[in-house]
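Q: NADH dehydrogenase [ubiquinone] 1 beta subcomplex subunit 4, please. Structure only.
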Amino acid sequence: MVLSAEEQEFIKRKHEATLKVRQEFLKQSSNPYRHATGEGGTVFDAGLARFQAMRVSNYEHFKPTGKSFRTGLFAVVLPIALYAWALKAERDGREEKYRTGQVAYKDRQFKFI
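A: Structure for NADH dehydrogenase [ubiquinone] 1 beta subcomplex subunit 4:
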């Protein structure tokens, strides 16, 4: 794949910016006198702070969409409803067998005695 001169220049600028940020981080994180500045022992990362703030305020910026509705429906509501239906059908079938005398009392799974 051949890149144009503009693309190569963009990649080069992006790489240089990455190296500059990396060098600054290494310089700050390896400074043995950092505690004397009152900043503590960690480097403040603006990107990480923005990410954490976004995670905390995610609910405040939630916009219901069709996709989020379908996700909630298929991931939460539908499995619970199917499981409830299966339990009810199984219990009703077992109860019907008990009431019609197809299962003797001594053969029942749950007894009062």
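A: Brief note, in case it's useful. Residues 1-31 form one domain.
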